[in-house]
Amino acid sequence: MPSFVTSRLFWIGALTVIVALVLPTYVSGYVLGLLTVAYYTAVFAMSWDLLFGFAGEVNFGPTFLIGVGAYTAGILDAHFSPGLSIWLCIAAGALAAVVGGVVLALPALRVSGPYFGLTTLVAVLMLQNFIVVAAGLTGGEIGLAVPDVISIDAKTNYWIALGFMLVSGAILFGLSRSAIGLILQASGQDKIQAGALGFNVTKHKLAAFVVSAFFSGLAGALMVFYMGTASVSTFVDVGVGVQIIIAAVLGGRRTVIGAAIGAIFLIGMGELLRPLGELATLIVSVIALVVILFFPDGFLGIIRGGAKA
Amino acid sequence: MLFWQILIDGFAISALYALGATGFTLIFGVSGVLNLSHGAIMVGAAVAAWAAASEFGVGPYTGALIGILAGFILAFATYFIAVRPIQRSKAIAESEKEIFILTATLLWGIIIQEAIAYLFTNNAKTVLPIVEGVTTVFGVRTPRNEYFTAVICWVAIGLLWFLVNRTRRGKAVMAASMNPRGVTLLGIELSSIYLTVWAIYGLLAGVAGILLGMFLGVSSYSVGPLTASAFSIVVLGGLGSVSGSLIAAYVVGYLETGTAYLISPAYRTIPALLLLVVVMYLRPQGLFGRR
């Protein structure tokens, strides 16, 4: 009954989007701000899922791409503001992230599994070191203050984040369901066989890196101009990357949409449990571990499982 | 003077790195598991030793014993909670078990880290050293504890070598890392080998954690960097190769100490990271890895 499953998922999705659209009328600016961050994080997680779930690349460094995008946009704005429109800065950030994605793809074509994972981790640590050492340019450990923001209105920011998440989600989801997505999945599972079937594995993997990097960098750059500041702890730190990975696996890997659900869940839960202080992260981690151990297909797997039964 | 200082400090730090990385590489070599809760187990052992010795006043020796016990318990808990259920799961495809174990051990590490932060706060803790005082060798004043650390690390590594090469149980572990199926055909239960390896791992990680706590101090913030440094040393040396890890630990330890003394402590980790990138490009299996 796959059509029933998809239609049920479709209706749940449509309902969620409608709720998200009417939300600004009913909730406070604080909640909207939280959701804005959650939506950007959702794009991070979806981009990661394209690389891991489909291309089969264990990327421990999603924050390398995000950080390159965020800092490029931020530095350009901080040094050339009012002369340079923030949209140009954002475009430059996305472009820089794409270059970063190609750099990251080069080792991926040579090494695999844990070796590639470590290369990406090292890329993050190098970026982090660079930002701290080149403090004059990047603001160092204190962070980089950006003179311009997209808007100071919580609702406008919310709409932009929501629209951006929906559009990039649709593109990434469409891509994953297209022939390209299938070829990627095949080359992720058996590189040699996919090559033997006549598919250009290198070209497709490179494309996956470029697309993933583009959306990560774009989301990072947009988030800089939402927050008005870029700092290592929000964009580059390995801990941020870990959260993105957990979000994608928690929501259901190889689904794209699951990654977004996981990201929104993680940020929402973290906020709901904030009164518990130190215990909040502990509880969220326990929930995530339980889901991974008992429901390896994540939240989306649970919904689908319910639909099947 | 500076030369001797770098030589002595670098030696002690490298010995500690070597001990920490040995357990990590052993687990990978035998069961193919990359344990990302490694740093959390080390810190857990150190904090247990600190709490017993300083908070409950049982003295440094009993404190260290309690720390080692904590390392044991945490290692077994990691195996039974985050590793074995995934290895035995039928719902997870074989090809995806690796990423699931990575994610699960990572989460388990965060759980340990947060539990430590909740129970004992985030403050840095220094474990009561067993050996106190300073001594001067080649005109360099060094805490005796530093020599003690290096000696214990090498004794532990020597004991591991003896265990793996000279005892029956150790030889079975060695054989399992080469050919798990062959070992089962010889009538040795593979799951009991895994238990042995995790026990050895707990001991190594526990001792390394406590020594680190005496030497540099630990806090729940050191969990991530500790895992990352063990991971990079092990990959640099070649995953699964114990002797490779030992050499890599010294390369990284001396690069870091040399950079910190000669250039600036701010650049401490950068040369080691650059070396790692170069090695990944030119020789992906690591300096001494076998493919």
UniProtKB/TrEMBL annotation, chain A:
Keywords: Cell membrane, Membrane, Transmembrane, Transmembrane helix. Coiled coil: none annotated. It is a multi-pass membrane protein. The chain crosses the membrane at residues 9-27, 58-78, 84-108, 115-138, 158-185, 206-226, 232-250, 255-273, 279-303. Its main location: membrane. It is found in: Cell membrane. Pfam families: BPD_transp_2. The keyword Electron transport does not apply. This is Branched-chain amino acid ABC transporter permease. It comes from Bradyrhizobium denitrificans. The lineage of its organism: Bacteria, Pseudomonadati, Pseudomonadota, Alphaproteobacteria, Hyphomicrobiales.
From TrEMBL, chain B:
Keywords: Amino-acid transport, Cell membrane, Membrane, Transmembrane, Transmembrane helix, Transport. Its main location: membrane. Pfam families: BPD_transp_2 (PF02653). It is a multi-pass membrane protein. Coiled coil: none annotated. It is found in: Cell membrane. The chain crosses the membrane at residues 6-28, 40-58, 64-87, 99-120, 147-164, 185-218, 230-253, 265-282. It comes from the Bacteria. Belongs to the binding-protein-dependent transport system permease family. LivHM subfamily. This is Branched-chain amino acid ABC transporter permease. It comes from Bradyrhizobium denitrificans.
